Amino acid sequence: MNVAYRRELDHNYLVLEQEEYQESYQVGMLLKNKVPGFLECRMSCLDKNASLYYEITSRQSLRLVLERKRLTQTELLKLLEGICQAACSCGEYLLDVEHILLTPDYIYLDPDEWEPFFCFFPFEKQEMGGALLELAEYLLDRLDRQDSGAVTLGYEFYRLAGEENPSLKKFLETWKEEGGNIGFADCQEFKRQPEPAERKLIRYDGSGEKSVLEDTCIRESGGGKSIENVFPEWSTDKEGGTSFLSGLREPGLFLRSESAAHPDLRITKENFLIGKKKDAVDGWVKARGISRIHGRITKEEDCYYLTDLNSTNGTFLNGGRLEVNEKARLRPGDTVGFADVRYVVEG
Predict the structure, then answer these.
(1) Which residues contact 278 (CB under 8 A, 6 or more apart)?
(2) Residues forming a β-bridge with 180
């Protein structure tokens, strides 16, 4: 199975390509019906090869959404209900449930509504029990540890997925009947530990004045104190003041906004998400044309790259629109556009 992404007018598609295509009942049912719980799909054939185009406009993959957030009980429950709905749809339309792709890259959802949609790929099978267990393991690391219901549900789902013949439908029915109190207890070891306290570090100069080093703090934890300093190295001069040994230039990549209405962006992480869903991105840009999770800037070795993340109104580099998931290198002087919000790249 080959994976690609395509943009056609205002629609974005996940494209799964299969060599040596042969017609089957499964393919016909998928293409002729709008099956509840599954991404809508159409097929394009060339010689003996087939490409299935899954509509993903305005949706994001589960893996991408969980890069910057943790699952609550409500969100996890909706996800499991979505899997159950997809399995029920298979029974209704006489489809083989083992053709459902449960990898987080192929589960798409609306980041606000959390209604999941799944890829049904009729050319490849996966053992459902093993796929459920892999998904359960992935979700365990992404639970909101402050939400005891999410922890309970997550570990109960993991236990269920490890059974020989798991019944997700029966599990969810029991969960609702019991009010979410079945099985796994709210253990102390799964509670999130409090963040270490922070105190600002004060700098005194030769005149007796003092100032706060905004990016320097003392962290206190069980192991004692440590000083974290993101400033360049300091040295003390003869008068007792402080001077820099190196320049004041901050690390990372700087994107200067061409409009005062939108913030500049300083990229200091190796994986930096941009969009208007504040709790899901690193760079929050509130504008009408910006998608909730719009684009990404990544650092690989000493180079920065721009990627469009299935945005509705596009991501642009020097006036050219990027394809969905296309990655392009950024250089000083480049112009970057997220919809109609424009930036200039400064090293």
Answers:
(1) 284
(2) none
Asked if residue 321 lies in contact with residue 312, where contact means CB atoms within 8 angstroms, the answer is no
Q: Which amino acid is at 310?
A: N
**What's the burial of 62, exposed, middle or buried (CB within 10 Å: 0-12/13-18/19+)?**
buried
| Separation CA 121–CA 25 (nearest Å) | 13
The gap between the terminal CA atoms of the chain, to the nearest Å, is: 39
Burial letters 193-203, b for 16+ CB under 10 A, else e: eeeeeeeeeee
Q: What is the pLDDT of residues 13-62, one digit of tens each?
A: 999 998 877 788 889 999 999 999 999 999 998 888 889 999 998 899 99
Strand partners, 274: 283, 295
Q: Which residues of 232-266 are buried (b: 16+ CB within 10 A; e: fewer)?
A: eeeeeeeeeebeeeeeeeeebbbbeeeeeebeebb
**This prediction's pTM:** 0.69
